[in-house]
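Example record for the data management plan.
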Amino acid sequence: MRSNYNRNPLVGTWQLKSYVVITDAGEKTTPYGEHPIGYLNYSEDGRMQVIGTSSGRLVPHDPTPTDQEHVSLYKTMFAYAGTYSLEAGKVVHHVDISWNEVWNGTDQARFYEVNGRTLTITTRAMNPESDTEAQYVLVWEKVTSHVLL
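Corresponding structural encoding:
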């Protein structure tokens, strides 16, 4: 039986390189900073997971963050997991669990383009900063296989 790996360009682990929000007026923002940190994984069995954070995040003063520190940490991250389905140039994330409970049970459609070791994912969504729709562009780089013996 032949593996789906060769037919599915998304399978593997990707490292976040940039996260840009573009308004309809053309204004660009980087809500997770100029150098966000994150990983996106698509497995051959149809599961996906993603986690991302701002670089230079707050480090709590104690092992148990204060309420204010919790809020700051929450606002500088995103994370969710579930299954995914592919169409030509489109991936749909079927969210099982998320850092934001409102996403649980939803389908998050994304458009994608793979160019060599670079994956660009785009979507239109509400920008909570301005309460208007915006274009989200995330650029990922394929992580080289790493096996520890």
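Summary line stored alongside the record: Residues 112 and 121 are 4 Å apart (CA to CA).
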